[in-house]
Amino acid sequence: MKNCKVCIVTGASRGLGRGIALVLARDEGCRVYATARNEDALKALVEEAATGTKGGTVNACVLDQSDDAAVQAFVEQVKKKDSQVDLLVNSAYAGLIAIKPHFGKPFWEKPLSVFDASLNIGLRSAYVMSALVAPLMVKNKAGLIVQISSFGGVNYLFDVGYGVGKAGLDRLTADMAAELNPYDVHAVTLYPGGAVTEIAAFPGGETPVFTGRAVAALLNKATKEDLARMNGKVAQTAELAVNYGFTDVSGDMPKGPFAGVDAAKQCREVMSKPLIQYDVDAELPDASATNNPDIAAMFPGA
User: Fold this and answer.
1) pTM, 2 dp
2) CA within 20 to 30 Å of 113's CA: 47, 60, 83, 269, which one?
3) Torsion-angle region of 68 (φ positive above 0: left; ψ -120 to 50: alpha; else: beta)
4) CATH number of 6-298
5) Is residue 189 helix, strand or coil?
């Protein structure tokens, strides 16, 4: 398809990454390079995306994000096929599967591998992919990089490694945006609400399609002025839904306690204040509110 936008979505075999890749291809007519380790799951995504009527496609790319050489080879293959990458979505994340068996434990009672899981396939993999894709965007003086992060970047959530990884993604966006700004390339962090996926089951949470529609809004509905305002910053899926007029698959906004407009407002209130490490008057969060054995039930697929 001529003049279609070219996108790369990592972690696309399931969860939010899958929903993002699906919406971009099936509903927005994009050519999507979808990466993950699970070949069968990627093939199923290709088939579902083909049901769209906009001419978009998913190219299934089996890729281990921990293998830098493989990631570099993947990017080189994309460059050979396409002269541009309009959008990179870093959604690959391995932390929750590692965290789940240890809910209720403090960090010193967990294996060190739990921390590594959040930092390696999450923060580091996002940096590696961004560093390899950015030169093409800089050359074309166009492109958007989106990090899929979480409220855990600004407030304690689940686990020490989880929060450090998400805060790192948020800072990664901000610092990359500063260096990319002269080249008209933008970087935005996206905070989904609590979701309902193959792994997570937050009550009344957003579906991966809702997250996908948020990314699609950044790609196809946000103006240059909008992107300039959001460049280096955090946007929330519910806020984008209000601003750009989309809903979840139900035709409504997510209503759960961890999703939707009300939750987005609460998150924005927290982000509008100095973070606890910079505010000597701030109270430390209650870690047991989200790090307890009962929370593990919200991740039945992990």
Assistant:
1) 0.96
2) 60
3) alpha
4) 3.40.50.720
5) strand
Active site residue 162: yes
Residues 173-187: pLDDT tens digits? 999 999 999 999 999
Average pLDDT over residues 122-147: 98
Report yes or no: 34 and 58 within 8 Å, Cβ to Cβ: yes
Q: How far apart are CA 68 and CA 183, in angstroms?
A: 25
Rg (CA), the chain: 18
Helix and strand numbers, DSSP H then E, in the chain: 11, 7
Residue in 93, 162, 191, 244 annotated catalytic: 162
Structure tokens belonging to residue 44: 């199923």
Residues 6+ apart with CB under 8 A from 135: none
Structure tokens at 157: 């959530």
Tokens 């001419």 locate to 55
Residue ranges of the domains in the chain? 6-298
State the DSSP H helix or E strand holding residue 9, giving kind and residue range, or none if neither: strand 6-9
Range list of β-strands (E), 25-175? 31-36, 57-62, 87-90, 143-148
